[in-house]
Amino acid sequence: MTVAARPKTSPPVSIAVTGSGGTGVMTAGNMLLEAAALAGCYGFMGRTSGPQIRGGEAAALIRLASGPVEGYADCFDLLISVDWLNLERLTAEIQLGANAIVIGDPSQGEPPASIMVPGIRRLALPMKDMAKKIPGGRPNMVALGYVACLIGLPEAAVADAVQRTLGAESDRLAASLAAIKAGRIAASAVDYPHKLVPDLAHRDERWLMTGNEAAGYGALKGGVRFVAAYPITPATEMLEWMSPALTEIGGVLVQAEDELASINMAIGASYGGTPALTATSGPGLSLMMESLGLAVAAEVPIVVVDVMRAGPSTGIPTKMEQSDLNIALYGQHGDAPHVVVAPNSVADCLATTQWAVHLAEAMQVPVVVLSDQLMGQTRMVIDPPPDRGFVGERQLAAANGEAYRRYALTPSGISPMAIPGMAGLMYTADGLEHSERGTPSSQAKDHLAQLDKRERKLHAVDFGPHWADIEGEGEIAVLTWGSCTGAVREAIARARDQGIAVKLVSLRLLLPAQPDRLAAALAGVKRVLVVEQTHSGQFHRYLRAEHTLAAELKSMRRPGPLPMRPGDIRDELVRWSRP
Question: Sign of the C-alpha dihedral, residues 524, 528, 531, 534?
Fold first, then answer.
């Protein structure tokens, strides 16, 4: 078998496509990303917008490269704007490089002064007038053609991406292709040195998906066949993807009237023997806390995917943050042992959610999966993730003539579970404390025995190597989790290029804490930089509460919506490496 040679690589290029909501910048951004994928490139597209349904500010934030990329760069190389309305609200998120190019329509006024830093090159593109000359033409398609030509994407790949999006029979297809052609012609006269290198031989090996889609796919691979949820930004796309996918495999998705109903429906389905899931964001997770306690007490397995957003309260629904950590770890009343896991990339959303289903079913506990807006709504070109083989499988009771003890005090803390209808295995499952048979009890001995039993489950299970990603060696380590991992990984690579040895530890299993494993991972490390996306340092405080760490800890934290940037982390590592 002949293996096609990998072409030479090119440096990544970062592009912001901006405009007011409704101008089609997200559509253009998605088409640009798909065209890059069809050309054999890697990349991702994040999205940022205001809370408005239409109008307000919006931007597709794209990074493309010949090799894998995991997060935003320190700054953007290109900014193309369909209009300048409210763009100043996004200038903190869209930092331009010293030699960046800003492209705009002269008829739409002047760009905000806040983005026009010294060294910026400005180009005029009359998108609106160009689109008017094409029946059915749209300015966002002119912008797409212009940028695609500048960065070297093949015309065929762009056309293919547009056709896949609109459909071959769409009456908008011809107009869109004509507008793209007009944009390409306009860009052909511009000298832009940073061209992508297509890799057509390997393009079919890549996947194009969001973290929400990956999490949904992982849940199905793990065995979930029932989902109940109430739509909430930024988790809704996960539910939209799962609904038709569940139908194809005989499962069911129910849109509940609110978050309380959705988690209780999931608990009911799981009690009936069907692996179940609900997905939400911070405000919904707050409403689910009492029912999560019910699942702990009744030992009913469920998975709750929390796609975090900036809080508190309604907060900023369209922006990312990691500030649901505390409520996921400690939000339930009473002693309520459960599991909290967190994917550290778009691709890892698949494996970690699949693992969550496996853990919930095997341990008969609720498992919270902490994703966030950045991972959930980011669309990325990735290599296919390896199949970890995690499948949810619970220990079922066998029908017998003896008195069934649903909550028997086993060495592992896991008791055989009966499914309603199994002969001779009736029991009571509710939120009251109970005896081994499930009979409600207020006796101290039963309470202590069941508390010990439920806690024992968390310590009897071997979580294996999936508890964390550990990379590299050095006397300095960066300890992080979730979507910060990509920026940290890139920062560490840059630090190594400067001769600074740094180790990466990204936790995937947050609860139960693994103090012995973390101590072993940090053996020989003298300094630990803790990187997280919160204002109060929730992850740093969690580490200090649950682990005894010999190394010196330093907190690097930032609330959303500004993402962690590799350069900032690298600079902190360089400063800390000095004597």
Answer: positive
Pairing of strands 509-511, 339-341: antiparallel
479 with 531: CB under 8 angstroms? yes
Other beta carbons within 10 angstroms of residue 11's beta carbon come to: 13
What mean pLDDT comes out for the span 544-567? 93
pTM higher than 0.90 for the full model?
yes
- Same CATH topology for 13-205 and 208-382: the answer is no
Domain boundaries, the chain: 13-205, 208-382, 465-577
- What are φ and ψ of residue 376, in 5° steps? -65, -40
Q: Token digits for 409?
A: 């005090």
Report strand pairing: 527-532 vs 339-341.
unpaired
> Which architecture does CATH list for 208-382?
3-Layer(aba) Sandwich (3.40)
For residue 476 the two structure tokens come to: 């300095």
Tokens, residue 382: 């990735």
Q: What is the mean pLDDT of residues 45-55?
A: 82
What does the alpha-carbon distance between residue 191 and residue 160 come to, in Å, rounded to a whole number? 25
Percentage of residues of the chain with pLDDT beyond 70: 98
Cα dist from 219 to 33, 328, 398, 475, 530, whole Å: 26, 19, 27, 38, 30
Report the C-alpha gap between 144 and 150 in whole angstroms.
10
* CATH code linked to domain 13-205: 3.40.920.10
The residue assigned the tokens 């778009």 is: 346
Class level of CATH domain 465-577? alpha beta
Find the angle CA(371)-CA(377)-CA(380) to the nearest 5 degrees: 100
Return d(Cα 438, Cα 195) in angstroms, integer. 67
Per-residue pLDDT at 6: 47
Helix (H, G, I), strand (E, B) or coil at 553: strand
Q: Give the neighbor-by-neighbor strand order of the sheet with 552-557.
A: 468-471, 502-507, 476-481, 527-532, 552-557
71, 92 in Cβ contact below 8 A? no
Long-range contacts for 445-453 (Cβ within 8 Å, ≥24 apart)?
Answer: 449/409, 450/407, 451/335, 452/409, 452/413, 453/407, 453/409, 453/410, 453/413, 453/415
User: 209: closest CA among 47, 334, 382, 330?
Assistant: 382
Task: Please report the pLDDT score of residue 199 as a whole number.
Answer: 77
* Cis before 234 (ω within 30): yes
Helix (H) or strand (E) holding 347: helix 346-363
User: What is the pLDDT averaged over residues 251-263?
Assistant: 97
